[in-house]
Amino acid sequence: MNMEKICQSCSMPLDSIDILGTERDGSKSDQYCKYCYQGGAFTAPNMSMSQMETLVKMQMEKKNMPSNIITMAVDSLPNLKRWKKRDSINHNL
Ligand SMILES: [Zn+2]
Q1: What is the number of domains present in the chain?
Q2: Nearest-CA neighbor of 81 among 2, 4, 11, 16?
Q3: pTM confidence score
């Protein structure tokens, strides 16, 4: 069984150890990629989900990903751990 893990912030597949983010003690995170999470903290802690949507779309379009894959990735964002518990954080700038 090889369940595909995705970053719980940007939905990028975590398919290689090089892409994994790092915890405060330097160990690899099994939930976030290195672009989102480094040293135990989000690299862009104030980013909103809609900003993340835009970013994900942009990155994937740059890689010429098919639009249905892009839509799937964007649609999956609200289910990711980072964005799920929105009601407890209510500080929109
Ligand atoms: Zn990520």
Answers
A1: 1
A2: 11
A3: 0.82
Strand pairing partners for 38? 41
Indicate whether 1 pLDDT > 90.
no
Q: Could you tell me the distance, in angstroms and rounded to a whole number, from the CA of residue 1 to the centre of ligand 1?
A: 23
CA of 36 from ligand 1 middle (Å) equals 4
pLDDT digit string (tens) for 58-75?
A: 999 999 999 999 999 999
Q: Decide if 9 is inside a domain.
A: no
CA of 21 to the centre of ligand 1 (A): 8
Cα(20) to centroid(ligand 1), Å: 9
- Residue 44 burial by Cβ neighbours in a 10 Å radius (0-12, 13-18, 19+): middle
Name every residue whose Cβ is closer than 8 Å to that of residue 44 and which is 6 or more positions away in sequence. 36
**Distance, CA of 83 to CA of 15 (rounded, Å):** 21
Does residue 31 sit within a domain?
yes
